[in-house]
Design a protein that fits this description.
about 130 residues, alpha+beta, elongated
Length: about 130
């Protein structure tokens, strides 16, 4: 994604659905997206925010059982499993995007906290 095979200002819309958080060195990728995006184009992204850890079910259970260390360990392991390298809040994303020529025009929360908790509960049962 750091060197896309497209001309400058090629795309009207670029969609990055739950992908940018997995790229270790994100700035070159965002600069390249800016390069291939038309001047009036739109970049639509979905990314989890750090609050995702607060929505997980099992750390809350561990904390209630006074096993805070286990809750923190669970969160670290979950983030490693998900390979989240860019878990940032809206302000951090805004600074990063603006630093590469992009900007946030609208921000929405798409997945309710309860859905994240349910995902955490049933994740391992799916396999």
């Amino acid at each position: 994604a750091e060197k896309l095979p497209f001309k400058d200002n090629y795309f009207q819309t670029i969609i990055a659905n739950s992908s940018l958080e997995h790229i270790k060195n994100i700035k070159p990728t965002l600069k390249e997206i800016h390069r291939v995006l038309k001047k009036d184009g739109r970049l639509l992204i979905t990314v989890p925010r750090p609050i995702i850890s607060d929505c997980l079910f099992f750390p809350k259970v561990f904390m209630k059982l006074k096993l805070d260390w286990l809750g923190k360990l669970y969160i670290r392991l979950k983030q490693r499993l998900w390979r989240h390298y860019n878990l940032m809040d809206e302000v951090e994303w805004q600074k990063l995007l603006e630093g590469t020529g992009l900007k946030i025009s609208k921000s929405l929360t798409l997945i309710p906290r309860r859905v994240v908790a349910l995902h955490d509960i049933f994740y391992f049962w799916v396999f």
